[in-house]
Design goal:
This protein has a single domain, classed as NAD(P)-binding Rossmann-like Domain (Rossmann fold), CATH 3.40.50.720. Helix content is about 40%, strand content about 15%. The protein is built from 7 helices and 9 strands. The strands form 2 sheets. The chain has a 7-stranded parallel beta sheet with strand order 3-2-1-4-5-6-9, with helices on both faces. It has a two-stranded parallel sheet with strand order 7-8. Helix 3 packs parallel to helix 4 and helix 4 runs parallel beside helix 5. The two termini are about 30 Å apart.
Length: about 250
């Protein structure tokens, strides 16, 4: 156990990839876990089954992180059905890619809505229910620290915003005993960015360890921050990127 026995967690975007690994790991370490998903209902059911197989209560909530009411509603439903909320993991994300001059206003607004506004609103709603020992863990990106090639300006900008938010939250929430951190994953082997996909060898060339992360490796750090190991860590970013930003 990592001090998560009896804790209640909400992981946004928890039906796939890193989010699914985080939800499963938190359950294995003792927490009941709610996840949000947008379209992957069957995958969400599988994650809930994995949570329940660990002996914990699971809950899947259909929610669009770009929609304000959907975001805050997911927090409210978690509290209503699981009893309270101790850990919020803001993981939901998208990956816009392309030349900056071709980014449309709609794409800009949607990415900001998912990566920035949705995170802020989920956090704002969640911390109303958190007491001392509460955790806000934002999932950023290695591109917030280093951008070695073109096409990711919008993505990097929105993920970089999470560090400013996290630092502010540390000051706002510290007096209440609630911590806020951001985890910056590097290239991680998921269906969104498979280790054998197009361009994977190019990405590996920037990684000091020369390989993609497994989603479970990101989840291990999140669980550490959510548990007793994270009690005195706040207002900072932790890179789990294999040396991408070294």
């Amino acid at each position: 156990m990592t001090g998560l026995a009896g804790k209640i967690a909400l992981v946004t975007g928890g039906s796939r990839g890193i989010g699914a690994a985080i939800a499963t790991r938190l359950a294995q370490d003792g927490a009941a876990v709610a996840i949000t998903y947008q379209a992957a209902a069957e995958q969400a059911k599988q994650v809930v089954a994995a949570v329940e197989a660990a002996g914990r209560q699971g809950l899947a909530i259909a929610a669009d992180s770009a929609d304000a009411a959907s975001v805050t509603g997911a927090v409210a439903r978690t509290v209503a059905e699981l009893g309270r909320l101790d850990i919020l993991v803001n993981n939901a994300g998208i990956f816009p890619y392309g030349p900056v001059e071709k980014v449309s206003l709609a794409e800009l607004d949607h990415t900001l809505a998912v990566h920035v506004r949705g995170v802020f609103l989920a956090t704002q709603a969640a911390v109303r229910h958190m007491g001392p020992g509460g955790r806000v863990i934002n999932i950023g990106s290695c591109f917030a620290e280093r951008v070695p090639y073109a096409g990711v300006s919008l993505y990097a900008m929105t993920k970089s915003a999470l560090l400013g938010l996290t630092r502010g939250l540390a000051r706002d929430l510290g007096p209440r005993g609630i911590t806020a951190t951001v985890v910056h994953p590097g290239s991680t082997d998921t269906d969104m960015n498979p280790a054998d996909g197009d361009g994977a060898d190019h990405e590996r060339s920037f990684i000091a360890l020369g390989r993609y992360a497994a989603a479970a490796e990101i989840a291990a750090t999140v669980s550490h921050l959510a548990g007793e190991g994270g009690r005195y860590i706040t207002g900072t970013a932790i890179a789990v990127d294999g040396g991408f930003a070294a």
